Amino acid sequence: MTDLRDDTDLESLARRVDAAVTALADLDPAARAAAEELKAALEDIHRAGLVTIVTRMRADDGARPLLFDLVDDPVVRMLLTLHGIIRPDPVTLAERALAGVRPQLHSHGGDVTLARIEDGVAYVRLEGACNGCSMSSVTLRELVEAALLQNVPSVNSVEVLPTEPTPTLIPLEALSFRPGANRLEDDGWVKVARAEEVPAGEVSVHGSGVLVVNVDQRLSAYRNECAHEALPLDNAVLDTAAGTLTCPWHGFCYDAGSGECLSAPGAQLEALPLRVDDGDVWVRVGG
Predict the structure, then answer these.
(1) HEC profile for 116-135?
(2) In degrees, to the nearest 5, what angle opens at C-alpha 126 toward C-alphas 124 and 127?
(3) Residues 6+ apart with CB under 8 A from 22
């Protein structure tokens, strides 16, 4: 019988990978080329096998729930991500990239907010004193552009929007100051609820076809359609500890904050811009 070793935690595996990469760099060119070719060949075999396993489990009603559970395991998720079977959506990649430059922005009294990604363009807002300032002859705007262009393959250009905030994910206590509800409605915004009507840890569905999720006092809005078969998510299960939203129909699991589908690569919920004005939750559904 095969001996199953209990030393497969993510941290120890990552250390072994780092050590192997370091050792690879010390080899002479011919040996390094042979080792890299062996690595590439093994990865191709592993990926082909994993794709077959995932495809068949997704097609089997009995095996699909087990696949969803496996994807939640950090080692399995890392493996599937390394082989391109699970791909973070562009918004998740962009937020990770921006997190890397925020310390520099904060040191100059500023910040950056990702508004949306559309047709290969990342729309951001630069806030505070950093807007237009420079650091070692490189503007902070250029740092933001470089971070996004280098880390988000689907982004081809970056556009800086005016500082008026229209985030898709905001704290409940944050208020915008754009007066006049009629102007919001003219721009395609719909008032869906009062903030207190979307309590933390709950999912709120509204007649306009909008799903509002509250995780740790932060709101996200999505079109009320699962990315699988466009079925409604009225009874979706929100796990605040894991930050996930699970479709009640076929168990497709999503990142509650970004809408990224954790079950099917490349799929995601349709995120809608959201804002709070004087305690009213507004979602932009058109315009």
Answers:
(1) EEECCEEEEEEEECCCCCEE
(2) 135
(3) none
Q: What is the pLDDT of residue 162?
A: 65
| Chain mean pLDDT for the chain | 76
Place of tokens 């075999």: 45
* 157 DSSP assignment: E
**pTM greater than 0.90:** no
Contact between residue 222 and residue 247 where contact means Cβ atoms under 8 Å apart: no
- 123 is written with which tokens? 């729309």
For the segment 151-165, what is each residue's pLDDT rounded down to a tens digit? 888 889 998 876 543
Cα distances from 244 to residues 72, 189, 240, in angstroms, run: 10, 26, 7
Residues of the chain whose pLDDT is less than 50?
1-5, 129-138, 164-182
Spatial distance between the Cα atoms of 241 and 239, rounded to a whole number of angstroms: 6
Query: Using an 8 Å Cβ cutoff, are 86 and 262 in contact?
Result: yes
Q: What's 78-122 look like in SS3?
A: HHHHHCCCCCCCHHHHHHHHHHHHHHHHHHCCEEEEEEEEECCEE
For residue 42, the surrounding DSSP H or E stretch is: helix 29-59
The two three-digit tokens of residue 63, written as one number: 């095996």
Q: 147-153: which pairs have CB atoms within 8 A and are 24 or more residues apart?
A: 147/97, 147/98, 147/100, 147/101, 148/94, 148/97, 148/98, 148/122, 148/124, 150/97, 151/93, 151/94, 151/96, 151/97, 152/90, 152/93, 152/94, 152/97, 152/117, 152/122, 153/93
- Residue 118 tokens, joined: 């559309």
CA distances from 221 to 10, 59, 95, 260, 287 (A): 33, 30, 17, 13, 16
Q: Copy the structure tokens of residue 83.
A: 């082989």
